[in-house]
Structures are given as structure tokens and as C-alpha cells.
Design goal:
The structure holds two protein chains of two kinds. Chain A is mainly β. Helices cover 0% and strands 49% of the residues of chain A. In chain A, strands 2, 4, 5, 6, 9, 10 and 11 form a seven-stranded mixed beta sheet that branches. Chain A has a four-stranded antiparallel beta sheet with strand order 1-3-8-7, with no helix packed on it. By secondary structure, chain B is mainly β. Chain B is built from no helices and eleven strands. Classes of the chains: A mainly beta, B mainly beta. The A-B interface holds A 4, 31, 33, 35, 41-45, 48, 50, 55-56, 58, 88, 90, 92, 94, 97, 99-100, 102-110, 112 and B 30-31, 33, 35, 40-45, 48, 50, 87, 91, 93, 95-105.
Chain lengths: 116, 112
């Protein structure tokens, strides 16, 4: 079965550089979530999109932005990178989430970002 | 806000049964998930509870008591490959579009 695809899998950047992470959800999944997981930490929700519109926003720095495109893939853009941005970035997708109805999220393999 | 608590580490032997507990405090509880995560890999969905009671799926079962803010994940016939971190996560009606709030995870080590 098709899974969530993320690219790149590994990324090394220097401080103050920019990075773009891509996520391709499972076919027919229309909701995408981004999570950040630091070393030894639990995943922290950053932002989500439903039908190409931002649906929820968590602890995402103002230096980061994201969008979902017409083909439902999503990109997380990170600027002015800091050492503390080094983490695993997961994308997850799910089918339509209607009011009060929660469905499971399927996670991609993650992008490991290292800022030096 | 959400407050999710689970033990940091647990150990067990192959073939045994282990129960991982999770307590939570959340406004507008709307479901509890258990995920398995091997080091450096993506969380893998294990189970979902929204109503009180036990959900069984093969060697894994998950229980929920909403009145007590309590859940547990039961793993039977443990195998070495079950060594991983187990994450308890909740969703809230305050965020109707599915944001997951994770606990810190329980690192389970299975010994031969």
C-alpha cells in the first residue's frame, strides 16, 4: 500500500540558511500535518492543512511557513535556520476529518534536518 | 491545555505480557491513540479509543477510561522486535481537525 513520502530524507544546512521539506500524502488523503521531533522528545505539532487551506496551527515559529498544493502535497519552508531547528520533521496524512470525528494519521519516514 | 503522562522506560522478557499506562488531562477529549516508534523512524499507528472499554487487535490491546483519564496498551507474547518507544497521544474537540498531542513516550526494552 502507498505510504506518505517525504523528501529529502536527510538535510544538512548552516545557520541562517533556508530549507524546504516536501510531503506527499497517501492518495485520497486530503489532510496533511507537520510535526517536529527533537532528540529524545515527543513529536510537537506544527501546522496542518485540509483541502489546501491551513486548518490548524501549533508551535510553528514565524520563520517557518507551509502550504498545501492542488495535488495535495505540502511543503514546509524554513528560513533563518537556527541550531535548535535540528530535528526530525514528520509529515502525516489522513482522510477527511469532519467536525468531531477523528481518524488515524499515517506518518511519513521523516526528514532529518541538521543545522550546523 | 493537554497533560499526558506515561512511564519513561519499561523492560520485559520475550514471551511475557507488558502493560504501558497513560494518564491524560485534556479539555474536550476526542480520542486517544497509541503509536509505536523505533529509533529514528516514523510513528506507526497501533490503536485508537474514543469510547470506554477494550479494543483488541492481535497481540496488542488498548483500554480507555474517560472518567479516569486513563488508558493502557497491553502487549502480549512479547517479541524482540517490540523493543521501541510507545507514544500515547490525544486529540481534542478544541482542535477539531485532528492535531495529536503526544506524551513523552515509553521506551520498552524486550530481553531474550
Amino acid at each position: 500500500a502507498a505510504g506518505v513520502i517525504q523528501s529529502p530524507r536527510h538535510l544538512i544546512k548552516e545557520k541562517r540558511e533556508t530549507a524546504t521539506l516536501k510531503c506527499y500524502p497517501i492518495p485520497r488523503h486530503d489532510t496533511v500535518y507537520w510535526y517536529q521531533q527533537g532528540p529524545g522528545q515527543d513529536p510537537q505539532f506544527l501546522i496542518s492543512f485540509y483541502e489546501k487551506m491551513q486548518s490548524d496551527k501549533g508551535s510553528i515559529p514565524d520563520r517557518f511557513s507551509a502550504q498545501q498544493f492542488s495535488d495535495y502535497h505540502s511543503e514546509l519552508n524554513m528560513s533563518s535556520l537556527e541550531l535548535g531547528d535540528s530535528a526530525l520533521y514528520f509529515c502525516a496524512s489522513s482522510q477527511t476529518v469532519r467536525q468531531g470525528i477523528t481518524v488515524e494519521q499515517y506518518f511519513g519516514p521523516g526528514t532529518r534536518l541538521t543545522v550546523t | 491545555g493537554q497533560n499526558i503522562d506515561q512511564p519513561t522506560e519499561m523492560t520485559a522478557t520475550e514471551g511475557a505480557i507488558v502493560q504501558i499506562n497513560c494518564t491524560y488531562q485534556t479539555s474536550g477529549f476526542n480520542g486517544l491513540f497509541w503509536y509505536q516508534q523505533h529509533a529514528g523512524e516514523a510513528p506507526t499507528f497501533l490503536s485508537y479509543n474514543v469510547l470506554d472499554g477494550l479494543e483488541e487487535k492481535g497481540r496488542f490491546s488498548s483500554f480507555l477510561s474517560r472518567s479516569k483519564g486513563y488508558s493502557y496498551l497491553l502487549l502480549k507474547e512479547l517479541q524482540m522486535k517490540d523493543s521501541a518507544s510507545y507514544l500515547c497521544a490525544v486529540t481534542s474537540r478544541g482542535s477539531t481537525l485532528g492535531r495529536l498531542y503526544f506524551g513523552r513516550g515509553t521506551q520498552l526494552t524486550v530481553w531474550p
